[in-house]
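Re: that chain you flagged

S.,

Sorry for the slow reply, it's been a week of failed gels. I finally had a moment to sit down with the sequence you sent. For the record, here it is as I used it:
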Amino acid sequence: MDSGPEAESDRLTTYEEVLEQWALNDCSAVTNSPGDDAMKALFRRWRATRSKPVTVTGTVTPQSLDRAWTSFVSRWNTEGPEAFQQKLMRREEQHSRLSVQALVSQICQLSWDADRECFFAHYRLGCPGCRGYSVVRPSAADWDRITNSTPPLRNRAQAGGAVPARVA
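Prediction finished late last night. Pasting the structure tokens below so you have them in one place:
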């Protein structure tokens, strides 16, 4: 068995090729496919369960998305559609319970339901949910005005609904 530097280089090249077997959204190798559009939607949902993007950004390269797609296709083909979709539903449920972003979305919805202009995460970070409605992130002066003119909510009834229970 050759264990020199050339063999190591060959092994890494082979592994790298395995990771990049299919380009992003290439459905040619998918077995039991529900269709290209459905596979792309499943990939978006799968990545969302870990709060990962599905497009190229400053930190996400086309190569990393190709690798993620290859891993996704391999998992789909290995587990089968039923098992994969069950796992996806479990991951989505877990993500909605434990994700900070999901909590921010819940608080945003409660704020709108209680007819509040804004909440702290929107002020500090900007709210992805509100961006879809072109709601401008408030300035420090706007935030002071909002907090001084609106008393804090004291109980669940004022919030317009049940507040999610804390995770133990």
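What I noticed first: The CA atoms of residues 76 and 82 lie 9 Å apart.

Talk soon,
D.
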